[in-house]
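User: Batch of two.

Assistant: Item 1 of 2:
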Amino acid sequence: MRAAGSGVRKLTHISARIRGYTWASDNRTLIFSSDYKGPPALYAVDVDGGHIQPLGISPAQYPDASRSGDVVVYEITRTQDKLKLLSLVSSGAAPRMLAPSPGSDFIPVLSPSGAPGASGSDRSGRPQPWLFHRSSARPRPLPARLDAAAFTAPGR
């Protein structure tokens, strides 16, 4: 919109969250963060044509640009969700880490038979399903093609 408040128009047609935006120094480009193509990343949108250009920066949120040059600062949110295993039959037992990870793990599912469990994890740099064994701290990514070998315990 114009500085006086008239001429309001929509720049993007995305159905996703926008987590911060800022004007580039050319006053013709808006830099914004959105998760419309996956993890929060930075994008530039031309205010005349509405063309969105990915900037190849992720994770990134709440950008702020310099008025005197082509420099942008942004927030990198680093949270880690960890999985722990708690025995319900051992009174006073402390929870133990299920499968230590440099990333975040989520949505765990245990097998009642003791077979491998599964969880989501971004430990490889992108979210994907992982298999783990309660007796091993070494999970492995779920293969793209499932076969019986994916569901056998290590050493069997």
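Item 2 of 2:
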Amino acid sequence: KGKDGARTHSSNTTLIPNRYATLAATANAGATSITVDNISKLAGSYSFTNSANYFASSNLASGDLVMVIQMQGADINTTNTSAYGTVTNLKSVGKYELLEVSSVSGNTIFFNCTGSSGLANTYTVGSRNRAQVVRIPRFTTLTVNNNRRLTGMPWNGAEGGIVAIEANTSMTLNGRISADTLGFRGGDDITPDYSSDPGIIVTGN
């Protein structure tokens, strides 16, 4: 804990402290390691819009903290009725756990499992199931100044949608830590094209 030191967010910019990678294969309860699609995505130096490298060691390493979380996979009502979209079986969606890294080899992350039996839950990938790994900065203290904001990468169907921070001693929040609108992708606005229908007259307006 605290390996990334003290941090004060004072710049006039919305910043993203986390890093995200897709779980590459189903990880069963009891497993002591997981594999991600691309380990470089969890490096502090991995850059995307508003990303901030708050990590003492850029590459994921021993003592770092990660979250494993099931993002998608629930069953919904798919009938052409007003009930469409109703969740009929949540399954494991929303389950998560925090794990300390023991070592990294290629795209595989091994955990410190002293006194435990590995993962508490199964995280499933494939078909409609999506799970991800989120790297969490381990601050001693965190201060977010007035009118400043920490947030996360918007969910893109594979990664993002999460804001997670560890502060070992204290957190002073005068600004905001916000996940507003990060977890849902809006639908496309589809405008029908009637031009090929002989029964429809299309005008310039």
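The radius of gyration is 21 Å.
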